[in-house]
Design goal:
- It comes from Rhizobium anhuiense.
- It is an enzyme of class 2 (transferase).
- Keywords: DNA damage, DNA repair, DNA replication, DNA-binding, DNA-directed DNA polymerase, Exonuclease, Hydrolase, Nuclease, Nucleotidyltransferase, Transferase.
- Its EC number is 2.7.7.7.
- This protein is an alpha/beta fold.
- The chain folds into five domains: about 210 residues, Rossmann fold; about 230 residues, Nucleotidyltransferase, domain 5 (2-Layer Sandwich); about 110 residues, Up-down Bundle (Taq DNA Polymerase, Chain T, domain 4), CATH 1.20.1060; about 180 residues, Alpha-Beta Plaits, CATH 3.30.70; about 70 residues, no CATH class.
- The protein contains 40 helices and 22 strands.
- Helix 19 links the parallel strand 11 and strand 12.
- It is globular and about 105 Å long.
- The two termini are about 60 Å apart.
- The chain binds a DNA duplex through helix 27, helix 29, strand 15, helix 34 and helix 35.
DNA sequence: CCCCAACCGTA
DNA sequence: GTACGGTTGGGGG
């Protein structure tokens, strides 16, 4: 770049927001995709590139780049945690446009620039200064005041909306100071939109006046005592640090590392057909014609392009991670008494951003759909490619489609695709006028068994080989938001067909974030709750029991009713639920803890883990032998044969026939034969109960593990693939089923043998990494307990420390029983302790347990305060929160039934602790794959399992040493940078060829 | 065939 | 005392 060149730097992210507000609110394509900002952007670019002399800017660029924000995790966030903390989420209409604008930039053959850790403004500043140094002129296309500090004799700004240049005199006119003093001015005035604090009470006028008088901020701060106005002097003196911090925040960096140097920004010739293809897709007819004329192309001969958008911040807008306030260090606001204030300006802005605030929209949608009837006769069966292509084009046009698969199995790892359904919404801008249409695409339905043709492929179905590429294009298209219910299933299924779903929402997960604790999140209950509609039960379509058939045997017209309805319901649920996220301030929980975990879990499930069937088989034999021997002995002692596995029969034998004392009864009046009861009897010297306990252990291990696990080995992968549920616990934990790999035995030596059957493939190791005492650490953090915090910092035995505090016993030479009691109390605290429960656990009198609790609270009064505050919050608000803002609702906390109420209170005490720990490991899991990829281990370290506080990986032998520190570091730093805990997290990791030895 | 209670494995 | 899922027995339809 040289003198005479002219570099244009376009603030792409800023443009979208400005265009959105400047243009009519709902500029849309014929089918509803909002493209107002994209349209404005393309027109502006075209003008700049072709007709620059017709605009006030008056020059034609030689170099040009469009700059975007990459993410909110910029260095400013490190300087000031609350930076941009009160940004509200961008309006729905804006979201698809972020990606489209990048696509438009590429269609114009222009470079898209973004750099991790920096805002667009910093990149612009760096380029501007470099170009200036090279003697070139610069025009920054933006009207953002944050960029005005860059204006100089050679650097101008250009407000494309007002078609107006901004030079040094314009800055002085508007702000009262020259550009080089803008930094100091902004440092004083602050910025409520970006949450830059500034000095309270100092606005632009006062700031300009002060700068006029003192020259610059440093001088002002040094001589602040000279200020005559008492109040102003006091505020400035009190906010010196804030002013300096604010200056660091508003000062743009000019040293951003750049991938492309200035010369790479030189304007390339336009690719007419490529640009026209894009413009046609966007339905910009006027611009299409102009471009066609200018490049001498026959626009009518060019097909609309398949628009493909880069994933990343793009599809959901820049800075979305800053859309929700990151919790400040200090955790649960109600505990610390801190909360992030929402400045009035931000509120006012939100109110005018669209016809509806999120809350209004949520309310309007809820009312519109609460009773809207379902018309099954309107559902379409798509049987030819032309119709399918039309529907897919409609989905692209509206940027939104509900999607559901129909398959042969509930197991996504085994299921075969039979067909799929779609639902499309027209006119979503009008909540009461939104129209939904739905269709089913049968692919491999067979003629019914009773049919004359008998089991052959039914006629008039689109061949799989034609449908899949189209489905792939749609599902992988990041400019189309796919909405599904329980998407992990469909995601995994489609992944097995080589399709990776991108840009998605899951109504189940949205409901889970909004309403955890208030009921199930399956489609049927949600449909009942929000749509007043009972969907066709699956068994009505596919039969049940013996008459049960796979979906490919269901007649296509019946299948259409069922499948299209599912897509219809899903889309309606999304319309109702999605705006509630923003209204409730839960968008970031959904977008940072929930949605990104879905593909991570899908990959874990797809990987599976190897279990050694030989080991299990041998163990099963041993267990059978042991159980058989015990059975013989039990029958002798009982004097008769009976079903030992029947608690009822066993109770009759023990407490009836043999007349043993000390039995308690269950709530149905049966004799209890629980392990606790049997252990007590055994301790009293009876032989039979001991043998029953042993027999139970052996048969439990055999039936639940050694015999069941081999049945879960996948016929093709030869591995076991569990299924994780993201939305079945109230607290945010995952659950695992079919098989449940979160309850593999570990506590007894016999049980641990099961773990030896979980093995690594040859040449590999399993790495198990688990958080040490994570829940107690979370407790120490949220309740701010100094002794606990210190103990964790010093790495001392936490239970021994507790015992020492409580009983005054030194840790050295502490009797095991004393420590055991303290440990039980610590766990009891986490569970919302009661004297009754602690007494049970320790087999002591309730009064004694009560004394322990009293003593504990005397030593740790902060814990009692914490517990009381959780109960109060649950009572007042109906919910409690984790450290990352996840909500857990307790609708029954005010029950008049004291035991129901007490139960809810204990749960409300436990949930923030258990749930925060769950959030922490979720963050670690989400970050794990990118972190491993960064050190070149992306495809060499495979995360397989999660067991609440433990992650299990499979790693090639040679990579173990390299992988372990990365895994440990990601887990230990999982709360950062969002939140720094008062207590360090510690992770232990080991590698071995089987899970038992690795753990 | 479905559902519930009891029991027990995990964190 | 919190949070889960799986197996078994047993009752009811």
């Amino acid at each position: 770049m040289k003198k005479g060149d002219h570099l244009f730097l376009i603030d792409g992210s800023g443009f979208i927001f400005r265009a959105f507000h400047a243009l009519p609110p709902l500029t849309r394509k014929t089918d509803g995709l909002p493209i107002g900002a994209v349209s404005g952007f393309c027109n502006m670019l075209w003008k700049l590139l072709r007709d620059a002399r017709n605009t006030d800017v008056g020059v034609t660029p030689t170099h040009l780049a469009v700059i975007f924000d990459y993410s909110a995790k910029t260095f400013r966030k490190d300087l000031y945690d609350a930076y941009k903390a009160n940004r509200s989420a961008p309006p729905e209409e804006l979201i698809p446009q972020f990606g489209l604008i990048r696509e438009a930039t590429r269609a114009f053959n222009l470079p898209c620039i973004e750099t991790e850790g920096f805002e667009a403004d910093d990149i612009i500043a760096t380029y501007a200064r470099q170009a200036e140094a090279a003697g070139a002129d610069v025009t920054i296309v933006s009207s953002d005041k944050d960029l005005m500090q860059l204006v100089s004799p050679n650097v101008h700004m250009y407000d494309s909306m007002k078609d107006k240049q901004i030079g040094i005199p314009d800055v002085i006119e508007k702000w009262g100071v020259p550009p080089e003093k803008m930094i100091d001015l902004q440092a004083m005035t602050g910025d409520s939109v970006d949450n830059v604090p500034g000095i309270p009470g100092i606005g632009p006028k006062t700031a300009a006046q002060l700068l006029e008088e003192y020259g610059d901020l440093d001088t002002l701060l040094e001589r602040a005592t000279e200020i005559k106005q008492v109040k102003r002097r006091e505020t400035i003196l009190a906010n010196i640090d804030m002013a300096k911090l604010s200056r660091d925040l508003v000062r743009l960096r000019t040293d951003v590392p750049l991938d492309l140097d200035l010369d790479a920004l030189v304007l390339e010739p336009q690719n007419g057909p490529k640009l026209i293809g894009f413009l046609k897709t966007m339905e910009f007819t006027t611009l299409t014609r102009r471009v066609g004329e200018a490049c001498d192309c026959d626009a009518s001969a060019i097909e609309p392009a398949v628009v493909h958008i880069e994933w990343g911040e793009a599809a959901h807008g820049p800075d979305l991670s800053a859309a929700e306030p990151e919790p400040v260090a200090g955790g649960i606001p109600e505990v610390s008494g801190e909360s992030v204030p929402v400045p009035p300006r931000a509120k006012a802005k939100a109110a005018v951003e669209g016809a509806f605030s999120p809350a209004d929209l949520a309310k309007a949608r809820a009312e519109a759909f609460a009773t809207l009837p379902f018309d099954h006769t309107a559902y379409v069966t798509i049987r030819d490619l032309a119709t399918l292509d039309r529907w897919i084009a409609d989905a692209r046009a509206t940027g939104l489609v509900a999607f559901d698969t129909e398959t042969t199995s509930l197991d996504a790892m085994q299921a075969e695709l039979v067909g799929f359904s779609m639902a499309i919404a027209d006119n979503t801008a009008d909540p009461t006028g939104t129209k939904i249409r739905a269709a089913y695409v049968p692919l491999v339905h067979k003629n019914g068994v009773g049919d004359l043709l008998g089991g052959g492929l039914a006629e008039n179905q689109i061949p799989m080989r034609d449908a899949l590429p189209r489905l792939k294009a749609l599902l992988e298209d990041e400019s189309v938001l796919k909405v599904a219910q329980n998407l992990k299933y469909d995601y995994l299924l489609m992944k097995r067909y080589g399709i990776e779903t991108r840009s998605f929402d899951d109504t189940m997960l949205i409901s889970y974030v909004l309403d955890a604790g208030t009921g199930a999140h399956g489609m049927d209950p949600l449909s009942e709750k929000f749509l007043g509609h009972t969907p066709i039960p699956y068994k009505d379509v596919a039969g049940s029991g013996k008459a049960n058939v796979t979906f490919d045997l269901v007649a296509i017209d019946r299948a259409t009713h069922y499948a299209a309805e599912d897509a219809d319901v899903t889309l309606r649920l999304w319309l109702v639920l999605k705006p509630r996220l923003a209204a409730a301030g839960l968008t970031s929980v959904y977008e940072r803890l929930e949605r990104p975990l879905l593909p991570v879990l899908a990959r874990m499930e797809a990987r599976g883990i190897t279990v050694d069937r030989q080991i299990l088989s041998r163990l099963s034999g041993e267990l059978a032998q042991g159980a058989a021997r015990l059975e013989d002995e039990i029958y002798v002692l009982a004097g008769e044969r009976f079903n030992i596995g029947s608690p009822k029969q066993l109770g009759d034998i023990l407490f009836g026939k043999m007349g043993l004392a000390g039995g308690s009864k269950t709530k149905t009046g049966q004799w209890s034969t629980s392990a606790q009861v049997l252990e007590d009897l055994a301790a009293a010297g009876f032989e039979l109960p001991r043998k029953i306990v042993d027999w139970r252990q052996l048969t439990k291990l055999k039936s639940t593990y050694t015999d069941a696990l081999p049945g879960y080995v996948h016929p093709e992968t030869k591995r076991v693939h569990t299924s994780y549920s993201l939305a079945s616990t109230t607290t945010g934990r995952l659950s695992s089923s079919e098989p449940n790999l979160q309850n593999i035995p570990v506590r007894t030596a016999e049980g641990r043998k099961i773990r030896t059957a979980f093995i690594s493939t040859p040449g590999h190791k399993l790495i198990s990494a688990d958080y040490s005492q994570i829940e107690l650490r979370v407790l120490a953090h949220v309740a701010e307990i100094p002794q606990l915090t210190k103990a964790f910092e010093d790495g001392v035995d936490i239970h021994a420390m507790t015992a020492s505090e409580m009983f005054g016993v030194p840790v050295e030479g502490m009797p095991g029983e004393v420590r055991r009691r303290a440990k039980a109390i610590n766990f009891g605290i986490i569970y919302g302790i009661s004297a009754f429960g602690l007494a049970n656990q320790l087999s002591i009198e309730r009064s004694e347990a009560g004394d322990y609790i009293k003593k504990y609270f005397e030593r740790f009064p902060g814990i009692r305060d914490y517990m009381e505050s959780r109960k109060a919050m649950a009572r007042d608000k109906g919910y409690v929160e984790t450290i990352f803002g996840r909500r857990i609702n307790y609708p029954e906390i005010r029950s008049s039934n004291p035991s129901v109420r007490a139960f809810n209170e204990r749960a409300a005490i436990n949930a923030p602790i258990q749930g925060s720990a769950a959030d922490v490991i979720r963050r670690a899991m989400i970050r794990m794959e990118p972190a491993l990829a960064e050190v070149g281990l992306g495809d060499r370290v495979r995360m397989l399992l999660q067991v609440h506080d433990e992650l299990i990986f499979e790693v090639e032998d040679d990579d173990v040493e390299k992988a372990m520190p990365v895994i440990v570091s990601v887990m230990e730093n999982a709360t950062m940078p969002a939140l720094e805990m008062r207590v360090p997290l510690r992770v232990d990791a080991r590698a071995a060829t089987n899970w038992d030895e690795a753990h």
